[in-house]
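Newbie here. two chains, one complex. Structure please?
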Amino acid sequence: MALIQATAIKKNYRVGEIDVPALKGIDFEIEKSAFVAIVGPSGSGKSTMLNLIGCLDHPSSGTLLVNDTEVARLSRNAAAAFRGEHLGFVFQDFNLVPVLTAYENVEYPLLMVRGWAESKRRERVMKILEAVGMADQAHKRPDQLSGGQKQRVAVARALVGEPKLVLADEPTANLDHDTAYRILNLMKQMRDESGTTFVFSTHDPKIMGEAEVTFILEDGLLSRQGAQQ
Amino acid sequence: MIATLKLSARNLLRYRRRTLLTAGLITLGVVALLIFVASAGAFKQTMVGEITDSMLGHLQVHRKGYQAATDNSPLNLNLQPNAVSKVEDFLKANPDVAAYSKRVKMGAMFSNYAETSAIRLNGIEPEAEDTTVPALRNRILDGEKIGPLVKEGELLLPTLLARGLKVKVGDSVVLVVTNASGSVNARPFTVRGILDQVTGPGGRDGYIHIKDARELLRMEKPEVMEIAVRLKNINMLERVQQGLATQLDTIRNKEDKPATELHSWKELSPFATIVKMIDMMTLFIRVMLIAIVLVSVMNVMLMAVYERIREIGTLAAIGTRPGKIMGIFLGEGLLLGLVGAVAGVAISYALVAIFHVWPISFTFGRNALALVPVLATGEVLLVLGLAILVSALASLQPAWRAANMDPVTALRHV
């Protein structure tokens, strides 16, 4: 059974009086523990596709099953609970909470979303910070970290709750080439260790080569599928 | 809950200057309100104490119709002995009554053998008067301050009259009175003391012994014009007045109508209107405080939400429920109000302590007063609660807006 099953997904945005189609009826499946890239130029629908999988947005039509849950029908609260329980997010701009240290940013989902006890939280946070090589920077705030370090913390935050799926929207766009590769390798390493499925979007052709499965989006259509390396 | 508040506190510290300014504004409002309430309360207490403790008493019983004609010092509206006896029975049986004093009041001519002037006189029972209006003794500026307030053949004279007619303690003067039947009576008195005058009705009256008053008026029976009543606790005034009024209603005249009337100091003194004005000003300042807190906190919280739209989107994306996001922003507003209000209360207590060392001195009418403001715990808690509640209310709309933000739109915000 695939982790994600999408059938005839359409997504239209209303701009004034006109419906602008972002996704024009796409079908795809993503297996568990896959390392998937969604590739396409700006405005092709990559972020829309990630937002739908991540229960941040609803499709205009079609069915979307994530971990056997029809996410299109989830209420606002249920969607938040689903994201907190099963999903992790990595953003292009890292999106760390500036008033929290690296440790506290990683701790946030366990404390504020899942309500874990202090000792359990500490153990898990330190373990994941060590795994991403940031344990010695745990006390620093985001403004004291480099771009690569921030993204490592963001990856740790996404993985700390041991989610089934991590969605990363252009995770390397704001990083230099070497750092981008290191982050991708880190994500791959985490996938190998935890079995978490990674789906990331990129428009960088060099980065897409790192994926095991590649979806190419163009003008809202999934024109090619499954470029297995 | 604690984690949410901790995050709220961190967010407040993110914009230190703005937080400080807003909390400072709340502090200023709280200080202004508390110091005004403390000073106004002390002023009210001082003035009410002076009025009730040195002349009026807390309640007064008269024969029906007396109060309406009081400016003419009527001599035909006296409480008859049987009515007085019944009133005394009610007062003695009432556990909230501390003391009462019977008075015979009249208008008279006062002469120093060279000049003559009008005077209002109270015939009193010295011991009963002393316990009913204990501050009357403090008004004696010159003369015997210990022993009975006044003895038979003696007179306590208000200071302006004494000064105007150049009369001193120990001087002999004459009081001339027209009685109820129209005949004139006069007799000499010795000035026992000079009384400081106070603001309000009766503040410029002279005092003689009740026996002398009855003799001057040639009363055949021990009639009374006024019974002043002192309560054990002035805060019980309304309740006691209501109970006594019901009892006094049972004393009927020949037409089977109530023979007596009961008034509280509030109905007898114009200062009650000033008290009402002070209470209205307090209310107005309270409304101002609410407005200050509401506008400043709401403004800051709206700015906070606007500046952190992407952050709100991130928190929502990683699974923070809308209620928790709302809690973070509500917590910020609450803490802002709490910090501002607590600082305001602390500064108010410090100022009040300073005023205890250096009281505010001012004159009210002819009276020099030293005002020592007192912060009532109830008022402090009310202001604290009000500031915190209004802060929470002010942050409700911004917090609701943050909680209901569309995560996709929020994450796209630049």
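Moderator note: The two ends of chain A are 22 Å apart (CA to CA). Chain A has one domain: 31-59+69-225. Thread marked as resolved.
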